[in-house]
Amino acid sequence: MTKVYERIDTLSRLPGTLQEYEDLYIMLRNLSRSELEAAVSKHNLLDIFGHIDLGNNDFSEVALNIAEVVFSTFRLTEFSRSHETELLMSITSRNIPLRDFVIARLVDGVENSPPEDIDMPMKILLEISINHPEGVKTLLKDPPLRSYFESLTGDEEVIRLSEIFAYIASQRKGTFKEMIDCSVFDRLISVLNKADPLLQLNTLAVLKLLLTFPDGRAFLKSRGAVAHLFSSLQTLKENPLHDILLPGYLSFFATLAEEEPMDFLTNPIYRQPLVSCLASYLTTSDPTITVAVTETVAQICRTTDGKRALAAYLEPGACLTPLLSKAASVMLNASASTLPRILLALADILSLPNVDAVSALIPISELTYQWFNLISAPSPPTRLLGRIWEMARQPFKEVRLAALNLLRAIATEPWGVALFAQVSGFLEYLFNPTTEVGTAVDGSSLQPEKFKIIEQCDLTQGRWKGYVTRWTLLNDETAAKLKKRVKDGVWGHTRSQAAVAMENEVFMYVK
């Protein structure tokens, strides 16, 4: 038995000869079930497929023979659950022949198994459907699987099943038509009318996945789901549980507005009622509601069209302007769990997308500069930048990471680069490659995240140089230092112990 395991240990790490694989196949055929179980779980038998030349007919044939021994020894459900990790690694492998080979064996098992044997882990069903060209067709057309799906009648089961197919459709958009033809989402639409807030929130989360591609949005509109949800949003305050439901509703419509900023936000049927709804919640003292409203506006503002659509409502004195001061208040008084959300939302509001010519972005940059000043008021903008910088040096890693993301967003703006130069010590902090060493006590260094700010400053400096604005970019000497710092890389010339440790950690993971 030792000889078999030694052979497996070798072939699971290095390619072998055709004879070695043929000998292994003969050995495996003579193993008992318990011995084969040990070969798979303790000696990484499935790893050998990653080293076999599956493009070669002879090697492919012996690989098929070995796989048949493995797959025929265990019931499909039992094997997929006990060896889920190994199967997922094979299915998601960059070795395309290996991936297709293992998926084909699983598909064969699905097609030839009774319904009671198809309770495979959902991750495996997802990966089969995403990576195999016929995966969705197999799930929907196979009688045993269809029978299994139809047996799931509870609301939570319907939501979970719909979530699986919605995720698959978001990854392989060409599969959506097959799903519609098989009425996959019909039962989910009916759950929308249920009064249970948890069911509503879970349903909204699934429907939001369908918003991420055109056919999904068209389907929801044609089935009346968008109109129904928008009507419910407008009367949501009448629901005693509105504070629980609001974040889910707002997230749904923020996603729709982000995906279709022109169609959705220029439609008076939607824009004004949505803005009025958002404004009505700005009177609350509940920071959770304030964060949800801010995140909604932030998601819409990820695009330049979204920023333009909301510009009039964020003018001084307009209905949404209080959001900026309230967001600033929450930012300064939030808990460690809420603060990262506000910082990331402000990053979306202030970030300048790199999608248009610079001349077309000047009005957008004027807008975001006005918003930054409204957030900072009554203090000057340099004071607000200093506070964000302080947060980027806090001991809480999630807060620090979110603050670094916000600084990177500010660095996309010409006024942001100008502000960086006005805050004493800030550029020196950016240029210093050792500031994150010893700070990240709860994980790897955030120095790579800080370096992204430096890279963005260099990009913004180069992109906006020569354009006339009211902001003064970095002088030539500082710009040259910036470019040299970018050239030196994340860790600069002096590699810190934290950097070496992190790279070793990554190396061990890859290995």
Automatic annotation (TrEMBL):
Q: Which GO terms describe its biological process?
A: proteasome assembly
- By what name is this protein known? 26S proteasome non-ATPase regulatory subunit 5
Q: Does the keyword Chaperone apply?
A: no
Instruction: Could you list this entry's UniProt keywords, alphabetically sorted.
Output: Proteasome
Q: What's the source species for this entry?
A: Echinococcus multilocularis
- Record keyword Nucleotide-binding present: no
Q: Which family does it belong to?
A: Belongs to the proteasome subunit S5B/HSM3 family.
State the GO CC annotations.
cytosol; proteasome complex
**Matches recorded under InterPro entries:** ARM-like (IPR011989), ARM-type_fold (IPR016024), PSMD5 (IPR019538)
